[in-house]
Predict the 3D structure of the following.
Amino acid sequence: MTGLNDSKKLSERKRESLYGEILQSANLVVHQFVSNKFIDKFGISSSIFNAIRKLILKSHTSNLYLLIDGNYNFKQYQLQTLFNFSYRSIVKGDSKVASIAAASIIAKVKRDRYMNSVASKYPDYDFDKHKGYGTAMHVKKIKEHGFSPIHRVSFQLKDGAHGL
C-alpha cells in the first residue's frame, strides 16, 4: 500500500484515505481504547499489555507474533497474568514496518474521531483542534480550566502540566 508511514507524519486527509484502504485490504482489524482512569491507575505499560491481551482475545486467533511500536518488555506482566504471546518491540516501528504504520494510522484516525466527538461535550478545551496532544494550546486550556474528566492526570507535558 503506497504512502504508509508514521501517522503523525501524514496529513489528516492522507490518514483518512489510507484508513479506508487499510480496512478494505486487511484480513483482520481489531482495536482497543484504554480509559484515562485505567492508565492513571495502572500506568502506560500495564495498560498497553492489558489492551494487547484484550485485542488477542477479540481476534479469536492463536499463534500470533506481534510487532509492537516502541520499546516494551511485557515479561513481568506475562508472568503475573500467565497470559503469553510472542512479540517484538520496534522503536519507531511506525516508520519502519508497514503493518505497524497501518496500525498507527487506524489508531490515530479512531482517536482523532473520538477527540472530535468529545469536543462538543468539553468545548472549553478545543479537543477538535489539538486532539489531546501536548500542544501549547492544550496546556493553556488545562491551566485555564483545570482537568476535564477525560484527562490523564498521570501524563506530564513539557512544562510540568498534565494532559491526555
Q: What stands out?
A: The chain has a mean pLDDT of 91.
